[in-house]
Structure formats: C-alpha cells, structure tokens
Amino acid sequence: MQKSAAISTPLVSSGLLFQFQFLPQVWLIRRIPEELDSSNKFCTPVAVLSLRCAIYFIYIHHNLSLSSTWFPKRRESSVDASSDHNGSKPLHITAKYGYEDIISALLEKKRSVNSIDSDGCTPLWIALDNNQVKSVQVLLKDFRVNVNFRFNHRTPLGYATQEGNSTISKLLIERNADINIIDNDRLTLLHYAIRKGLLDVVDHLLNRGASVHSKTKRGNTPLHIASMDGGLEIAKLLIDKGADVHVNCENSYKASCKGVPLQLAVKGCHLKMARFLIQKGADINATDPHTHYTIKKGGTLLHWAVREYDLNFQEELIRFLKENGADVNSAAYDGRTPLCLLVKHHGYLDIVRRIPTFATSPHLNSFLDITSSTTHFLTTYRVEKGFIELTKELIDAKSNINALASDETTPFSIAAENGNSILIELLLEQSNLDVSRSYHGKTTLHIASEKGHTDVLKALLADHRCTHYVNMKDSSGKTPVHIAVEYGRTNILSNLLEKTHDVNAVDKNGCTPLWIAIEKNQEKCAQILLEDERVDVKTRHFSQTPLERALKEKNTNISKLIIDRVGDTEIRDEDGLNPLHRAVDEGMLDVIDYLIKKGANIQSKTKNGNTPLHVAARRGNLEVAKFLVNNGADIHARSENYHNCTPLQCAVMCSKLEVAKFLISVGSDINAHYPCAHFSIDRGGTLLHWASRKMDEEELIRFLVENGADVNATEYGGRTPLCLLVKHRGSFAVMRYLIEKGATLNNERGGTPLYWAFSVDYYGHPKAADFLIEMGTDVNSCIDYHGYEWDQMRTALHLARHLSTVNLLIDKGANVNAMDKSLNTPLHLARTPSIAKCLLEHGAKVNASNILGDTPLHFVQNFHTAKILIEKGGNVNASNNEGYTPLHTARNTAIAKLLLDNGAELKAVTKDGKTVVHTSAEVDVFSHSQYLDVPEVVEFFLQKGIDVNVTDNSGNTPLHCCGTSDNIQVAAVLIEKGANTRVLNKSNKTPVECAQFFDSGGGTFCRMLHTIDKIFTAIIDNEGMKRIRRLLREVKTINLTQDDS
C-alpha cells in the first residue's frame, strides 16, 4: 500500500496519467480499486475522483466504456460529502475541467448540484468562470440547477452577458433564467448585451419580454447605448420592439452622453446610425441643453457641429446635417446661430466662404443686417478676437457697436478687458458709442484699471465722455482709483489722480484708496497717494487712523511714509495711544527707532498711564524693551490707573520672564509694592505676594525668589507670601521652598501661616496645618493678631478643628489651658466631643471661666460634648457674671433634659429675674440656625412647670421678650399655652408695644399680635364668622411669609 500512501492530493493523482496509460488494462481494473481503498487515510475521496478522471481519459483513449465500478454505491455518500481544502466538491472539479461524462454520471447519482465551495460558487458558476460551455450544457439539463443563484451580487446570466459570452447567455435564457435583474447602476441584461454588441442575445432577450424603455441611473435607455456604440442592427431590433427615438437622457455627468439617441449618434460620429434614426422620425433640429456648456445652453446638433476643430470632418458633418434637414438659421437660447459660433471658434471670414452650407444660405445675406441679432454677436466676437479689419467692415455696414450680449458684455467692454487700445480708439471715433454701459456694475475705466491696460486707460481718459465717469463706483462701491490701488497699478493710479476730484471716496466697506493700499501692502501706491495733498491721513475708519492700521498690519515702509506725511508723532487715538505706543505694541523695531529719531517722547503715557516700556513688558518683546531702556525709558515708572504697576510688575503678571529678568538686571525693584497683589483686603503686596495667590505659579515663585524677592515682605495687612500661599492652598513643595529660603512661620501681624491654614474655607486645611506645625510653628504664640482691637489673640489650640491637629499641638507642647483675650480656654471653643475629651484628658480645666464668667458648659450646644463635660465634673448650676446657668443657655431639648437629669435648677433666675423661658424667648432664631430647636425647649420648660406668664424684675413676661427679639416661633408656643397678649410690664407696655418695629407697624411678631387682637375684638363684638375667617387667613398668611423668609 506504499503507492497509495504517496497519492495524497488530486494534483499528484492526475499526474499519474501518463504512467497509467501504458499499463495493461486488466491490471488497472483490478489494481486501482484496491489501491484506492477508502480506508487509506492518505487517499481522500477528491484525490480518488481526480485519479478516476485520469483513468477516464485512458478509457476514452482506448474506446472503453465507463463502468459503474468507479462509483460503487457504498462510497456514494463519502464522495459527495467530501471536499478539498477549498471546499470544492467533485462536481465543482469536474465542472471546472469540463468532464461532462463524469458530470452526467454524478448527476445520475443525484449529487447536490447547487452545493457551494468556500468562495461561494456553485458548479454552474465554476463552469461559467472557466468558459466550459459543455459543462454548462450538461448542468442545465438537470432541472435542480439554480440558474439565478447570485455570486458577488450577479446571476449567471448577468455574468455571461457582461463577459460577452453569447453562447452561454442563450443557454441560460432558454433555461428561463431571470432576464429582468437590475444592478446598482440600474443596468439591465439588455443594456449589457447591447454594450457588448451581442446581437443574438439581444434578440433572445427581446423575444423573452425584456423592456426597451428601462433606464439606467444616468437615464440611458437601451437605444441610447446602441446609438452611442453605433450598433445599427441592434437599434433596428429595439425600434421594431417599440423603442422611443425621442426620449432624452439628462442625468449623465458627460455632456457627450446627454440628449436624445440621434444627438448621441452624431456626437459619436455614427452617421449611418444617425441617418437610420432620422428615417425613423428623430428630430434633427431638436435643441440640446448640453450642446455648448461654456455659454448659455440650448443649441441644435448644427450648433455642436460648427465647434468641431477638425475642419475636414466638420465639413462632412455639416453637409450631412444640412442634407438631412438641419436648420442653418436656428438660434440657441442666447440668440446665437451656427454661423456666429463658426466665426467665434475659427476666426476667419474665409472659413465661412469655404463651407457652401453657409455661403449659399439666405442667412449670409442678412449676416450684416443691423437689425439681425447675429450681427450684434458677430461684432462682439470679432472685437474679442481683435480682428480690426473685420470690425471695420462691420462698422461700415452699420453694425450695432453697442450690442449687448446675454452676459452683459459689449464690444467696448471686451476691447477694454483684452487691452486692445487700437479697437478702443476705433470705437471711440464713433459718435454713437455708448460709454456709460457697465459690465456687472463696472465701467471700462474699472476694467482697464483692474487688468492694468495703461494704453487703454489713457485712450479712455483722453475722451471727455469717459472722464465724466472717472469717479463712478461699481457694485461694491469702488471707484477706478480703488481698483488701481487694490491691484497695484501704479501707472494707472497716477493717470487717474490727474483726472479724479475725489481721492478720499469710500467703498461699501468704508475704505478709502489709502486704506486699501495699507491692507493690501501696496507700498508704491501708498507713496503715490501720500504725495497727493488731497489724501486725508487723519480720518478714522473702524476707529483707526491710517497710521494705526499700517502699524497693525505691520507695514513698516508705509508706516514711515504716513509718519512723514502726518508730521505729529504725538497724535493720540481714542485710547490715548500715540504712534510710538502702537509701534511698540506691534513690535516694529524699525518704526520705533524712526519715531524716536523724529522726536517721539519715550516717556509718553496712555490714558491708563502706561509708558511704551509698560507695553513692551506686557507683550514680552525683549528686543523692544532693551531698545527702549537703552534710549532712556524709565524702568521705575508706574502706570496711573488702578493697577499703578511698574514695567517689571507688568512683565511678571503676564509671565514674560525673559523681559522681567532683563528689567531686574538693569535695576528694576523686584520688591516694589504692587497695589493689586490681592484685592480682598488691604492692598500693597509685592510681586511675590501676587504669585503666591496663584496655585499653579511654582515656577514664577522660584524665579522671583532666585532674583531677590523678599520672602518675608509684608503687605499693608501684615501677611507674608507664605500666609497667602497657605490661604490659597498652594503646594507643600513651594511652602517648603519658601521656608527653606527663610520665610517666617511666626509673623507678628496679619495672622501666621498656621492661622490661615485653620481659616481656609469652613473645615480649614488640616494637612497644611500639620505641615506647618511640623516645620516649627510656635504652638503657644498668638496666631490671629491683625493689629485690630477686636483681635482675640488666640493660640493654635483655640482654633484647631481636627482631633489629629489637636493631638499634634499637644505633643508639641501646646498649653491646654491657654487663654485668649476674653479668657476663653481651648475647652470653651472645642468643636467636637473628641476634641473636648482630648483636652480634658490632658489637663484642661472643666469649670474654667472666661471674662464673662462663662464655663465651657455655658458654651456647649452638643449633647455628647455636654455629657463629657458633666462626667468630668462640670458644674450644671454654675452661674456667670449675669447669673446665667448652663440651663439658661441650653438651646436644644436634649441638653436641657441632660442638665436637669444631672441636678440643674429648673427655676433658677438671672440677676434680672429671668427664667429659662425668658432667656429662650430672647434668642434671635433667624440669625442663628443652630437655635431652631428653641421653641421645643420652651415647650419642654413649660411642661416641667414654668409659668407661661412669669415676669422678670422689669415685669416682662416671656411674650414681652419675644416682642423684643421678634421670635415668632416661641411666641406661637407661648400664646398656644395661654400667654396673656395684653399684659403690661413695669413700663406699661404690652408685648406688641415691645416689638422691634412697633412704631412702623412692621415686624412679623407685631403684625401677628395685632391680627390676634382683631380676632378677639371680632369675637367680642360679634362681627360674624366671615370677618373672623378672614382674620384667621391673615394669621396663616403671616406665618407662611415668616416661613418663606
């Protein structure tokens, strides 16, 4: 079986053909079935099939018949199901090589005739692709073959037709393949067959019902394609089937492919086809919108023919059209006849005479008729080409020299545009010449100025009729002078200035000729204009003078010319800037030097007090700054506006560090006070203060320090740069850098850096605080001194808001019983229970009293903090200098209950005789959000037995106190509990009269009590329920208003 093992591929198997054909036939018949045992793993069914194909040829060679031995039933399924590495089945391979007998044998065994390989092809497609006509014939005999199977969006019939294979196409048509398929360009099989010239296929398709009227995406019918290709016999078939000879194709992107079939045939030089179409009724004089697309459309085929530059073919084509009825006098949409186009495109009168079609036509007799539109056009075209003799002939024949073409041109305007001064002079000699005619708003003067035709312009200006229009404006408002300047026509400009009287005319954009010269950088034109004394150099356009505009456009030479013309180097614009400021702003060193030499003041100031050096510093122009300093500019000059800054400060603010370094090197003071270093409080910091306010200015800070900035300089409020850096959350790296450079941590005034770390936002900046403490801040010094009488002189422990900071301070030796200006200890100001507990654990005095006699328990409004203080021995009945106990200052029910539970005296009174209800009623609830629970506290005290109408030493009840504090919430509770609204105190005032706004009738409390009084009065006086309901609604409204506020 070694030989079998070697036969592993179809190609190898087929290669054995020449060996086998010389072996005895008996050996082949007996041996090969054994060699091709299906159990051999090296012999695939496809390989077997290929070898049998080779044997098939041997049988044919020896005239033997094909035995069914080669396709035993037991192997049918394996052979049919197997495939090679390309997914090809046996039927694919036999179809590819045209083994029709094997195909027939496979089909008899009911093999899958529509199976597809890995490329998506069926056996029929394989046969088509390899042009195996016999294979196709055999396959098509099987009714199971799918003749419409699509591969790459094409059917077999479509593919065969596109490839021009008429034999296979006819076979597929006869097999009822779909003839109405349309591709993405809407081409049918009939279109493709006509394009390939397959006459017999076209005949088959038409007999099968293919439509002769179907159009492609570009609008071509089958007859259009036949006409373009010259397929005369195909055209006959189409017309016999009803094709329309008048249908128009308008969608093609090529002009040669647009029109009716006759026009396409003529354009394709298929004259036999054209003659046939004419015989079938095609209109030879039909207008073609695409005949000549360089001018207005709508000519006939004869118009198209006269544009042909091959004169021999042109004569033949014109004769053909004339013989078949073409109208030689037909006019296009713009009135041009074929003769006009012939002269226009070929230029000599003898061409006309050489073509008998026109020479013998009656149109030639009217060719020079003044009333003929043809004459007008011919005159125009001959001037355009510059044929003097022909023009003279036309003028002598009284042709209309003012003829106006559809594009608004006249012979006069065309001559001006082409620069033909001889024709201009010839036309100007005619008295009936209309020189006022404009071409799109332009006169001939505009045209000559734009094109630069000096001789034409001189001829025009020499005629008094033309000089009348020398100041006429075109559609954009420009005069000929504007046009000459815009295009840089210096010679023309000089000639125009001699004739014009308005050299400062403005166009629709507000520009004068000088302004255009500046914008277009036309230096020579600007020089010519400035030499004219009439040219205005001071009038503003767009809020700028010509000099300002020239500087803005960086036109150095034009700027110098205007400076010489103006003479005044100190002329100011609306912002107070003189030419020197403008030149510095634009960085024009040559102009700056020129101005200074002309006497410009180098110390001149703008409205804002900025000198030229300020401007250079802000722009960061180092070369200009050096030049100004070398010429005496004051480096210490201050602007006179709100900023009041020096040039160095301008440079630093704008991050122009190269200029800043230069100014420092020549003596500018880096520590000069800068009033706008910070705007929130007192002004007067240095540049380092200003930079410290910027979170992302680390590079700038280092630059300033390295160049001598004082790290301990103070602004008017006493703050150092380090204070501002901490306040504005600067980086720790920069903080460390300043400290390493000597920045103090314990400045005397303005608050220390640690103070600002505690003061940042609501929660402070704990990381910065810890950093500053670690860096050596004095933990027992006053950190909040600003130099004001209201300073509290507190230490860091008084202001610490976080437990970690408190622990760090204590570890660094902070005094837990240190006192501020009001004798408050840190425990009085403890923000959280954990901080209070920490302070107590480190020795804080729980009953320490401040200058008012208040203990920490008087201050506390946190239940947990109060509980810690009481547990550590806090006196619940301690009274301050006014006799207030902690219960008098309790502002929430939990703390009040806690105090009472731990022995607080409920009925304790102050020195003024006030109870805990009086002191609660005095609270301004609206100004202190932490006191919103006071009404519940009052209700709690009343439930515990306090009399609602109890009076103090002045006879005031708690309701009187509500009037004083305008505490409407507590008043509501008191009234609900039976408080007397008309009781008098020792000053004979009711609670209403104690109200803050009683005299003006304002105040929520006052209005509410007045309304309640009215309700009582209405009830007593029996004013009725309607009145009472209205008053109750009024009380409700007052309450709602109070809630809203």
Automatic annotation (TrEMBL):
Q: Which Pfam families match?
A: Ank, Ank_2
Q: Which organism is it from?
A: Bemisia tabaci (Sweetpotato whitefly)
Report what the protein is called: Uncharacterized protein
Q: Which InterPro entries match?
A: Ankyrin_rpt, Ankyrin_rpt-contain_sf, Multifunctional_ANK_Repeat
Where is the chain membrane-spanning? Answer: none
Q: What are the alphabetically sorted keywords of the record?
A: ANK repeat, Repeat
PROSITE patterns named in the record: ANK_REP_REGION (PS50297), ANK_REPEAT (PS50088)
Residue ranges of ANK repeats = 86-118, 152-184, 185-217, 218-250, 261-289, 297-333, 440-461, 476-508, 575-607, 608-640, 643-675, 683-716, 912-953, 954-986
Would I find Cell division among this entry's keywords? no
Q: Which SMART domains match?
A: ANK
